[in-house]
């Protein structure tokens, strides 16, 4: 009887709805930073970012494919201009 009750309780717990974490296309603040597109990477030196939550991607650079919705990605072209700002 006890085992059956424990099984029912565990099954119910597994079906409980978990509140969603902050995620989505704007969870890193990228929409508010689109003004950076077209600017030289030197503008980043005057800005403050949370450590570990920004990634500057240069041409030919190897990057991990893990998706972190709170990480800000800045893609640069060969001339050091910011071409894309997005979360992930």
Model description:
The protein has one helix at 2-15; strands at residues 54-57, 72-76, 82-87. The protein has 88 residues and is α+β, with helices and mostly antiparallel strands. Strands 1-2-3 form a 3-stranded mixed beta sheet, with no helix packed on it. A hairpin with a 5-residue loop joins strand 2 and strand 3 (82-87). The chain is globular, with a radius of gyration of 21 Å. Residues 2-22 have low confidence and may be disordered.
Helix and strand topology:
Elements: H1 2-15, E1 54-57, E2 72-76, E3 82-87
Parallel strand pairs: 1-2
Antiparallel strand pairs: 2-3
Number of helices in the DSSP assignment: 1
Main-sheet strand order equals 1-2-3
User: How many angstroms separate the termini?
Assistant: 48 Å
Query: Radius of gyration from the CA trace?
Result: 21 Å
Quick summary of this structure?
This protein is an alpha+beta fold.
Give structural attributes.
88 residues, alpha+beta, three-stranded mixed beta sheet, 1 helix
């Amino acid at each position: 009887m006890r085992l059956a009750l424990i099984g029912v309780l565990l099954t119910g717990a597994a079906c409980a709805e978990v509140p969603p974490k902050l995620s989505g296309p704007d969870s890193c603040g990228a929409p508010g930073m689109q003004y950076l597109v077209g600017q030289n990477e030197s503008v980043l030196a005057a800005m403050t970012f949370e450590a570990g939550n920004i990634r500057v991607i240069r041409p030919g650079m190897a990057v991990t494919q893990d998706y972190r919705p709170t990480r800000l990605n800045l893609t640069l072209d060969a001339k050091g201009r910011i071409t894309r700002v997005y979360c992930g």
